[in-house]
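Task: sequence design from structure.
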């Protein structure tokens, strides 16, 4: 005799595990709960069918080989490489997928980045280009990174470098700001960082599959400044070294609340400030900032075993856009 397959709904599971004989009132309660659960399931199924019946609004476009783009770009810069006695190395993983987007537009950005690094690199230097698959916004993507030595930024720390690259206002980095704007409008992500002194790295992340229009086109880059208002009194009480360690605690806590390293968190220890740079959909920037400030308000920070009361001040701002249009990115930015 075949055993009856047990139902997976929670009401039936609870009914089957009820200890002993069930009174009449309990039986009636189970009957009503089953009826409610059945109607609820029917509503959810109908909503699901309605959602699935609507075609998914996607943004698609031509695909291209990003490795070919990198090779062509380096060939175009041969004269610049020879005049400065530079070498370059392209490292790519096997079986790379096709990138999605406007090939001419992406190639213009790649050319600008390679030229920027080459013009600022020391004679006899080396430029490294890496290409690999990655995950971005829970979708497959492809990342191309550019590294080189730049002695022109010897006096810049990571915070100052990112401020100049992402906020503009400095002519040396205005082409980088234009690159970020072009990549963002193309549905990708542009990341700049200074992991080591005088060794900047620039990353471009592009989608490799069709993604929703919301995911590609509605995101902006924001900067959330968090200042410890009473940092002067903390430094006076505990000293410079311990107060700097306290700022590092705040920095690490904020970093745990964002999608590091895709989003950036940095601190200026002597000023007691922490800055989070993150990308989110239009209209959601304040909710992300509120989540960070709410968690900071509940967290306890310590120097040794002593809990230190910190008074925070917050400021949210959108990072500026470059003064170019997406269509203009198909033209060389410099000759």
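Answer:
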């Amino acid at each position: 005799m075949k055993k009856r397959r047990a139902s997976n709904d929670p009401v039936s599971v609870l009914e089957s595990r009820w200890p002993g004989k069930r009174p009449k009132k309990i039986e009636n309660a189970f009957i009503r709960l089953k009826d409610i659960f059945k109607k609820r399931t029917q509503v959810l199924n109908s909503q699901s069918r309605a959602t699935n019946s609507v075609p998914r609004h996607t943004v698609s476009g031509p695909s291209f080989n990003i490795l070919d783009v990198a090779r062509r770009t380096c060939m175009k810069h041969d004269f610049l490489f020879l005049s400065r006695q530079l070498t370059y190395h392209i490292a790519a993983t096997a079986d790379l997928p096709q990138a999605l987007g406007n090939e001419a537009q992406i190639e213009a950005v790649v050319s600008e980045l390679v030229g920027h690094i080459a013009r600022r690199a020391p004679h006899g230097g080396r430029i490294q280009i890496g290409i690999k698959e990655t995950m971005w916004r829970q979708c497959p993507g492809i990342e191309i990174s550019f590294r080189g030595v730049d002695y022109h930024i010897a006096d810049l720390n990571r915070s100052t470098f990112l401020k100049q690259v992402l906020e503009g206002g400095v002519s040396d980095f205005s082409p980088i700001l234009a690159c970020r704007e072009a990549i963002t409008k193309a549905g990708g992500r542009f990341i700049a960082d200074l992991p080591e002194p005088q060794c900047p790295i620039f990353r471009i992340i592009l989608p490799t599959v069709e993604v929703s229009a919301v995911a590609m086109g509605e995101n902006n880059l924001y900067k959330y400044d968090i200042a410890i208002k009473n940092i002067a009194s903390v430094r006076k009480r505990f000293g410079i070294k311990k107060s700097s360690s306290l700022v590092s605690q705040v920095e690490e806590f904020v970093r745990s609340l964002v999608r590091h390293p895709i989003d950036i968190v940095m601190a200026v220890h002597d000023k007691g400030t922490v800055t989070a740079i993150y990308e989110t959909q239009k209209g959601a920037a304040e909710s992300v900032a509120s989540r960070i400030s709410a968690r900071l308000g509940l967290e306890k920070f310590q120097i040794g075993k002593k809990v230190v009361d910190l008074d925070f001040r917050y400021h949210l701002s959108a990072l500026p856009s470059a003064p170019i249009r997406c269509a203009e990115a198909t033209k060389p930015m410099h000759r």
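The mean pLDDT is 79.
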